[in-house]
Amino acid sequence: MCLKTLEIKFALPSHIKLNQAIGSIMQGVLMERIDHDYATYLHKQNLRPYSQYIFFSKKQHCLIWRISTLNQQAHDEIILPLLNLPYSVFLRHKQINITTISKEIIYENTYEKLAKKYFSLSNNPEEIKIIDFNFITSTAFKSQGKYIIFPEIHFLLSSLLNRWNYLSNTDFLNDKTVLANLQRHLYVADYKLNMRPFSLEGVRVPAFVGLYSLGVAKNDMAQKIALLLAEFAHLSGIGIKTAIGMGAVNTSIRV
User: Fold this and answer.
1) Fold of the 111-254 domain
2) What angle do CA 190, 194, 198 make, to 5 degrees?
3) Environment class of residue 197 by beta-carbon count within 10 Å: exposed (0-12), middle (13-18) or buried (19+)?
4) What is the mean pLDDT for each group of 10 consecutive residues in the chain (255 residues)?
5) What is the DSSP string of 100-145?
6) Cα 121 from Cα 25, distance rounded (Å)
């Protein structure tokens, strides 16, 4: 199972102040736990085989850190060491310790099974489906050296397709016509977005959070691929800097 999500819960110290930088801090924790040679390898990759983000759950009153791996090597080199994370974790940047409450694998799958799940659906292409993308951490895209701070369909789909095609062993989404066909059959149904810049080492990255809904027109193949990518988005994240906590998204489907 090379597609996995590990969820680690931490008790929240009363004196800690949370901001967007916490994702970058947890990236540091991750790098301290993995093999040095593999960490060096990751730094050289344009598309990294994992994503991670952390958020505060008001309901559970704890910090929740989710790390998803997108190939077998990333699972072995990242998930396995983090399953041995100690009870007390030192955040070097904050100079504090946080306490581990629990560690649990909350999702596991393979590219092949994920594809089969959606391509074996007895779909009704006459039903227009809506995919809700709920961006829960700051998200942005980059094109020709400029930040894109609205989830345009082209950039959203390109982000997901690029990761799928680069990291999976499947090739059925690697055709150049896939993106064009998807763009032809998807449209913006609704959005409720807010600006939320991401600060990284003094650099302010313009970004957004919130709800972005795409309608999928009456086309069987477009619906299957769109639904597949929507589930994959939970793991891969969307846009830039998903390895340091940006681009985390939850998706849901409605008719």
Assistant:
1) Alpha-Beta Plaits (3.30.70)
2) 130
3) middle
4) 92 73 89 95 93 92 95 96 93 85 96 92 71 96 92 96 93 89 95 92 89 92 94 97 96 90
5) EEEEEEEEEE-HHHHHHHHHT----TTSPEEEEEEEEEEE-EEETT
6) 41
Helix (H, G, I), strand (E, B) or coil at 234: helix
CB 168, CB 113: distance < 8 Å: no
Structure tokens at 238: 């969307």
Q: What is the pLDDT of residue 134?
A: 98
CB 167 within 8 A of CB 75: no
The listed CATH number (1.10.8.100, 3.40.50.720, 3.40.50.620, 3.30.70.1890) that belongs to domain 3-109? 3.30.70.1890
